[in-house]
Every structure is written in C-alpha cells, then in structure tokens.
C-alpha cells in the first residue's frame, strides 16, 4: 500500500509544481493494476465575473409636446356644430302692388352658443324689382362664430294694379227708372265692382286721377274745334310746367265718366265741364280713337256719358287734354 501511495503522491506534487515525470511501473505494478486514482476534482472554475450589464442607452430626452393651439373661444373643442335658428318677422309670402315700396320686416336669429345673432343677418334681395310684375325670392342669411350658417327665404309677389274703376253708379233702377233696393237687379248699383275713384285738383287747373295716375286739363275753354285743330291745341299746350299734353284715347276718357251723375256725368272734382255751346247745343268731347270701319272719331257726351262717332273733318267737339 505504501508503494502505491507514494508514486501517486509524487505525481500529484509534480503536477502541482507544473513539472512532469514518467515513472516506470514496476513489475509488481504490472501485476496488480492499481485502481485508477480518482481524478482530483478540478478546482472549481472561478465563476466568470458577471458581464457588466450594457449601460442602458440614455433615454432620449422626451420631445417637448407641441403646445396645443389655443382653442377659438367661439368653438371650444370643435364641439359647436349646431346652426343658428332664423325666423321671419311677418309672412313668408307677401303680395305688393307694382310701383310701390317694399318695407322689409326683417328676421330674427338665435344661436345655442352665441345667443342673439339678429344683427348679423344679411339680406339678399336678389332680382327683386318693384317696377315689374313677377314673383321674387329674397334670402336672409346668418352665421354663428363657429361658422355654422342658416338661411330662410321670403317670396315677394308683385302684381299689376287694377285701374278699372267703379262706374259711379250706386243705385239700381228698373226700366221705368224707378229705384230698386231689394237687390233683385244685378247691375252696377248692386255689384259696385272696381276701384273707388279718387281725384285731386291743383292750383294750375290740373286734375290728377289717383287711380290711373293720368293728369287731366281742367281749364278747358268752352271753344268748339274740328279734330285737326284739337290735335294742334293739345300738342302745343303748356300747363303746370308740362308740355306733353295730347288728346285722350276713348278708354282713357271713359275713366273719368261718372255714371252716377248726370248733366254733367263727371266727378265733381272737375270744375270746367262745358257740355253745350253758347246756343245751348250739346256737344261731346274728342278722343283720339278712330272707328276701324268708318274712319270716324269717337267722342263722349258728358251730359250722360254715352259715346258717339263723328266725321273728323266736319264734326265739332270740345277737347280735354291729358298727359
């Protein structure tokens, strides 16, 4: 045993000192195979020093957040998407007479955020023409501060003014000229249709028909004329600073006949109403309207308002100029 231990010890010492030796085994050693000495446990491998942790990459300084754009006071958080409420004052469909004035009644506007927006309403009259018959659309528009818009329309109807006046007859009469008051007679005394006549006389002797807007000469001289002379007379007349006088048409002259009056059959606003000459002969008033078949001129007797025709060359009549 001693012989076995010594060689092993020598070998271990030699290895420990970094040397090497070869020991020839003895015959005895060959005879008896010694048990393989247990390999001395290797010294434990020193634990590797822990790899230093990779220094963490310094975090980039956080990018400063972009300052938020201050919200528009009128549009907080873009939440106002409700348009204003706009309402018309008065009717949405209006009918007016031609050549009159349109007076706008306006509209009101309220907004859920901005409150009263009435003063910001914009009126667009479009093609409105008070001097032309037709139907027109005008528009009222408004916006709130968030740019929500609202609008509303009004229709303006321009109509022609009726110039068909009442005849002046206010009573009904039967065939015997007896007045009938029970409404059984269907005549002008019963219907009374048309526009009520209205006249104004000025200091120049001019009567203005407030319905037809025609102006009539009322300083009519009681002088009879043939037609050609009457045309020249009116064409050269200057009255009230106006010189565009002429002979009236048959329809124009008929508009001043008052069938409720007799002898003369004309409104009492007219002061010069001659119907007879100096010999008390009754004569009519000229018109510029000529009969298509006979070529004769129409005239109106203002004693009772009936119309007659006469020869232009020889007929004598009065004339009341018009403009």
Structural class: alpha+beta
How are the strands of the biggest sheet laid out side by side? 2-7-6-5
- Main sheet, how many strands, which sense, barrel? 4 strands, mixed
Please mark out the parts with pLDDT under 50 across 5 or more consecutive residues, or reply none: 19-41
Alpha-carbon distance between the two ends: 167 Å
What is the radius of gyration?
61 Å
Shape: elongated
Mean pLDDT across residues: 80
Beta-strand proportion: 15-25%
Give the count of helical stretches.
5
Question: Could you characterize what this model shows?
Answer:
The chain starts with a helix and ends in a 13-residue tail after the last strand. It has three domains: 82-159, Immunoglobulin-like (Sandwich); 163-193, no CATH class; 197-323, Mannose-Binding Protein A, Chain A, CATH 3.10.100. A hairpin with a 6-residue loop joins β13 and β14 (297-300). 12% of the residues lie in helices and 21% in strands. Strands 2-7-6-5 form a four-stranded mixed beta sheet, with no helix packed on it. With 323 residues, it is an alpha+beta fold. The longest helix is centred in the first third of the chain and has 15 residues, at 2-16. It has five helices and 15 strands. The model is unreliable at 19-41 (pLDDT under 50). The chain has helices at 2-16, 27-31, 188-191, 227-235, 250-254; strands spanning 85-88, 93-97, 107-111, 115-116, 122-124, 134-143, 149-159, 172-173, 179-180, 199-201, 206-209, 215-217, 285-290, 297-300, 307-310.
């Amino acid at each position: 045993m001693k012989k076995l231990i010594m060689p092993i010890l020598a070998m271990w010492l030699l290895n420990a000192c970094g040397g090497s030796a070869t020991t020839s085994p003895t015959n005895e050693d060959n005879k008896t195979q010694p048990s393989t000495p247990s390999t001395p446990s290797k010294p434990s491998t020193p634990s590797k020093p822990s790899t230093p942790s990779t220094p963490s990459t310094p975090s980039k300084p956080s990018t400063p957040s972009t300052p938020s754009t201050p919200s528009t006071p009128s549009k907080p958080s873009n939440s106002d998407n409700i348009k204003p409420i706009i309402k018309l004052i008065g009717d949405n469909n209006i009918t007016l007479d031609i050549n009159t004035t349109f007076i706008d009644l306006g509209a009101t506007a309220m907004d859920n955020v901005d409150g009263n927006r009435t003063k910001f309403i914009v009126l667009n009259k479009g093609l409105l023409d008070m001097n032309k018959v037709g139907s027109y659309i005008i528009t009222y528009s408004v916006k709130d501060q968030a740019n929500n818009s609202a609008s509303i329309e009004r229709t303006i109807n321009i109509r022609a003014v009726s110039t068909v006046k009442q005849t002046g007859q206010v009573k009904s009469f039967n065939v015997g000229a007896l007045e009938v008051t029970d409404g059984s007679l269907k005549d002008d005394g019963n219907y009374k249709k048309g526009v009520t006549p209205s006249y104004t006389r000025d200091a120049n002797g001019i009567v203005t028909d407030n319905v037809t807007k025609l102006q009539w000469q009322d300083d009519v001289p009681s002088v009879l004329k043939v037609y050609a002379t009457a045309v020249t007379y009116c064409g050269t007349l200057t009255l009230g600073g106006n010189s565009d006088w002429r002979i009236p048409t048959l329809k124009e002259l008929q508009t001043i006949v008052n069938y409720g009056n007799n002898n003369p059959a004309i409104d009492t606003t007219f002061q010069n109403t001659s119907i007879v000459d100096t010999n008390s002969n009754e004569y009519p008033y000229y018109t510029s309207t000529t009969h298509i078949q006979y070529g004769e001129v129409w005239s109106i007797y203002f004693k009772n308002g009936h119309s007659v025709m006469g020869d232009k060359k020889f007929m004598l009549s009065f004339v009341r100029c018009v403009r």
